[in-house]
Amino acid sequence: MPKSPVTVIGLGPMGATMAETFLKNGHPTTVWNRTAAKAAPLVERGAVLAATPADALAASELVVVSQTDYTAMYDSLGGATDALKGRALVNLSSGSPDELRRAAEWAAQHGADLLTGGVMVPPPGIGQPGSYVFYSGPEDVLDRHRAALGELGDTTFVGADHGLAMLYYQAQLYLFWSTLTSYMHAIALLGTAGVSAEEFRPFAATTVSALAGDGPMGFLRILAETIDAGIHPGGANTLRMQAVGADHVVETSREAGVDTSGPTALRDLFWRAVDAGHGADGLSSVIEAIRAPAS
Ligand code: NDP
């Protein structure tokens, strides 16, 4: 059966890999990029380079956008809005949920359906096992194009609100970056005593995998259960004890001469929760300080 045509707008590392994946899977693929020269390797493999954004939109019902941000979409398609009518615009660029909701209204005003998405792998992961993309917006549009979009990664639909895909995406990115930044902080700290990153790695791996496990250190599960239940049992591990420990991480970082901003932010959050009355509660009570930002 012939594969459906696809248009890809934006040929950074991500968009170019997506276009390459569609080509490999046999889709007639049209591309457009602000810097047209980036299309050359794809044209060699059979892609059609559209002369204008309007031509790119005219070529396929399914239009995948992968650019730095949503401003880029308006810059690219703002002069071609007549050609948006009837398109399934699938924007996989980064943005904030409110930006995505405004973009959905903009697309609807021009007769297009916007499906928003957040890609959860780097470019080499596109189309590989384990790759997935959060989608939100009209599920029927996703269903209509699930076969083609599924070639990029698993299609994980999270809800009709257009902002949801980015809410999930930003939540995952924050988890990813803050975990790895803490890892780098630990490496820098130990490095002041001559310990290499590679020497420390097995200890870090034990902690990270234990957090996701079912054992006594399985804090992903433990916190999910207590937070969803709205209880913060302290037991032998009170937040006050841990806030004092967090003070020591700040002090140790200062003594070692490394940056203290990350540990200080964490310590301040712990103490704000203690000051709000959670000293005898457990670690999960920190969520209350996160939910009620300091004014
Ligand atoms: P970039 O974020 O650098 O996107 C580059 C693309 O955006 C290029 O096609 C560029 O055009 C275009 N662009 C930027 N500004 C404008 C503008 N004002 N008008 C027209 N086009 C513009 O690289 P990636 O490809 O890596 O990322 C694409 C999206 O995917 C981003 O939102 C990113 O957050 C997300 N993402 C990226 C991942 C990664 O590991 N790379 C992982 C998961 C998501 P030009 O070539 O002309 O400069």
UniProtKB/TrEMBL annotation:
In the UniProt record, does the keyword Oxidoreductase occur? Answer: yes
Under Enzyme Commission nomenclature, its number is 1.1.-.-
Keyword terms: Oxidoreductase
The text of the family note is: Belongs to the HIBADH-related family.
Please state every residue range assigned to the domain named NADPH-dependent reductive aminase-like C-terminal: 161-291
Ranges for domain 6-phosphogluconate dehydrogenase NADP-binding: 6-158
The yes or no answer to whether the keyword Ribosomal protein is present is no
Q: What is this protein called?
A: NAD(P)-dependent oxidoreductase
One Pfam assignment: RedAm-like_C
Which SUPFAM superfamilies does the UniProt entry name for this protein?
NAD(P)-binding Rossmann-fold domains
**InterPro entries, per the entry:** 6PGD_dom2, 6PGDH_NADP-bd, HIBADH-related, HIBADH-related_NP60_sf, NAD(P)-bd_dom_sf, RedAm-like_C
- Gene Ontology molecular functions: oxidoreductase activity
Gene3D superfamilies given in the database record: N-(1-d-carboxylethyl)-l-norvaline Dehydrogenase, domain 2, NAD(P)-binding Rossmann-like Domain
- According to its UniProt record, this protein's enzyme class is oxidoreductase
